[in-house]
Amino acid sequence: MKIAMLTSDYLPNIGGIASHIYELSKALIDNGHQVEIWLWDRKGSISPGDSLGDIHVRLIGNDASQKKFGEAKRLARVIAGFSREFQPDVIHVHTLDQLMPAMAFVKKKHPSVRVVWTNHTSRFLRNIGSFMWRMKLRYYLRGFDGLLATCQERRDKSLRLGVPSGNCLFIPNGVDPDKYKVISKREAREIIGVDNDAFLLLYTGRFAPIKGVFYLAQAINLLIKKIPNILCIMCGNMEGDRESEKIQAYILENKLEKHIRLDGFIQNNLLGPHLFACDSLVLPSLMEATSISMLEAMTVGRPVIGSRVGGIPGMVNENETGILVNPADPQDLARGIIQFWEMKDREAMGRKAKKRIDEFTWRNIALRTYDFYCTLVSS
CA 227 to CA 223: how far, in whole Å? Predict the structure, then answer.
């Protein structure tokens, strides 16, 4: 099968969507399919020296003269040209922007191609209650044959857009179980400079309000007397981010420098020592799909302390593979951390978490996605 991944978010960007597209595309290629990335450089920020990975990319340039008017039609003309050359069976869209209405024009010229949208964005959950916003998405989706969502909640709410339930499916994010070289906790802590007797929590991800990282900082502040050796390392891009500035100010104000360490952005494939060094990953999100950070932690045998939102409860079995807490509630997050700290055999929880990963390998996610493509192509 020939598949075109259409997106405005891809390498060299960091984040879940770019990673999802790259890993899914690699797995589909490994399964014998032809895949191309059709990337709209919406911000005009991609330079010739940027690394776009090892999958063939067709670049759609930015056109400032049509930024507000006629953008969808311009994009459609470029995409239609790509379609004539590549002749895809499926065009799989991954972003919520002008690429979506563009597909209605593409379908008129290429009616046999099947068009799929994966609903990744948390903006969808924030806005789905708005009637006008739903009407706009319904209009966007008139050129689509199917919809995928990366958590069950997003799939269920996507049905409000008029997509037939049989053409609307939940398929989670995936993970590469062999991504990180196995090292001992002691060795990992030596690498990242952490005492072996520390009770180490890890956060990896964006410093954005929706990720709830400030509540995590507040929870740590509540715990320093109860757990004097507690240390939380936060990894993520902090440049120009108001939330990270707020957290840094909170750390200084409450003298938490010994208990919260900001390691900044660490390239995903270099996170292994941090993951092996920690006792648990903490995911205090206010909205979340199937978090790739969560899957990667479970892959190396680390449990997750996470919020009861989105796709987290679907992965974390309460008191078996992790602990669930209320979102936006530092007191309850502190309670969950204490519950984990007091467990006699925390490693057993990590081993159970690792056993859950088999169904979430990218190979299996690619097989499920291909099966979904086939149902649309044959209809």
Answer: 6
